[in-house]
Amino acid sequence: MTQLQPFMLVCHLLGVIVWVGGMVFAWLCLRPAAAVLAPADRLTLWGAVFQRFFAMVWIAIALTLGSGLVMMLVTGFAHAPPAWHIMMLTGAVMTGVFVSIWIGPWPALCSALAAQDWAAGASALASIRKRVGFNLTLGLITVAVATLGPTLST
């Protein structure tokens, strides 16, 4: 293991913790708590939350994918454990899903909030919720692959 590897692993884990942990919090804690709010308040809250969280996700993506790629290059793709290849694939899919949120329902939610169009905002939020739910599931599977992968391949 090179001296770079532990640093890359820390970057990788920090990115995963922020991204997947943020989705866990949003899905299991914030979403049910916000459900009791009036539509205008709920949508405004989600807009403010996503504005902050999505900025953090971009950083998490850079940390996670960047460090993962460096670790793969240092190890060599052919010598990397199978779990690493699975993580690379699922990370790429999760990034694609996030980009689809960023260019689709997120701008629609922002526009709806600016226009105070609560029906359009609710529709955009529902689309974001479904995609975040998919990414959360994929993220948790990826964590399981990362931790169980070495034991399953022996």
Describe this structure in words.
There is one protein chain. The protein is an all-alpha fold. The protein has one domain (4-152). Helix content is 88%, strand content 0%. The chain is built from five helices and no strands. It has helices at residues 4-34, 39-75, 82-103, 105-115, 118-152. It starts with a helix and ends with a helix.
Helix content: over 70%
Shape: elongated
The N- and C-terminal alpha carbons lie at a distance of: 20 Å
Mean of pLDDT: 94
Uncertain residue ranges: none
Radius of gyration: 18 Å
Topology:
Layout: H1 4-34, H2 39-75, H3 82-103, H4 105-115, H5 118-152
Q: What's the gist of this structure?
A:
The protein has 154 residues and is an all-alpha fold. The protein contains five helices and no strands. The protein has one domain.
Question: Key features?
Answer:
single chain; 154 residues; mainly alpha; 5 helices; 0% strand
